[in-house]
Amino acid sequence: MWKEFKAFIMRGNVVELAVGIVIGASFTAIVTAFVDNIITPIIVALSGNANVGQLTFKIGEATLKYGLFLQAVIDFLIVAVVLFILIKVINQLARKEEAEPEPEVKAPTVESYLAEIRDLLAEQSDASTKESETDIR
C-alpha cells in the first residue's frame, strides 16, 4: 500500500497540482496586500470612509454593507486579469514552439541518385575527351 501511495504522490499531475496550490496561495497573499495597501486607500480617499470594509448603503431602515464585497471583487478581478495574461503568454510561447518545426531533410529519391550518376558520367566523359584531344596534338 505504501508503494502505491508513493507512486500516486510522485505522479507528475499530483506534484504539479501541489505546486500550483502553494503558488496560488502565495499569489493570493500578494494580491490581498496590493488591494489592502494600494487600492483600498484610493477607495477610502474617494469615498471619505476610513475603512472600505465599513462602506454601507442605506435603503430605508435596511443597511447594505457592500465594502467587504467590493474588496473581494477587486481581489478576484486582479487575480483573474493576472491569470489571463499569464495563460495568454504561455499559450503564445507554446504556439511559437509549434510554429518552428525542425527543417525536414528529404530522403534522396531514385531519380536524384540517377541524375547524380548521369552528371558524374558526363563529367568523366568530358574529362576523358579533353585528355584524348591533348594527346593527339
From TrEMBL:
Membrane topology: Multi-pass membrane protein
Subcellular location(s) of the protein: Cell membrane; Membrane
Location, primary (coarse class): membrane
GO molecular function: mechanosensitive monoatomic ion channel activity
One Pfam family hit: MscL
Swiss-Prot/TrEMBL keywords: Cell membrane, Ion channel, Ion transport, Membrane, Transmembrane, Transmembrane helix, Transport
SUPFAM superfamilies: Gated mechanosensitive channel
Domain of life: Bacteria
Listed GO CC annotations: plasma membrane
Entry's transmembrane regions: 21-46, 66-87
Classification via InterPro entries: MS_channel, MSC/AndL, MscL_channel
Subunit structure: Homopentamer.
Xref: HAMAP family: MscL
Protein purpose: Channel that opens in response to stretch forces in the membrane lipid bilayer. May participate in the regulation of osmotic pressure changes within the cell.
Family designation: Belongs to the MscL family.
Name listed for the protein in its UniProt record: Large-conductance mechanosensitive channel
Gene name as annotated: mscL
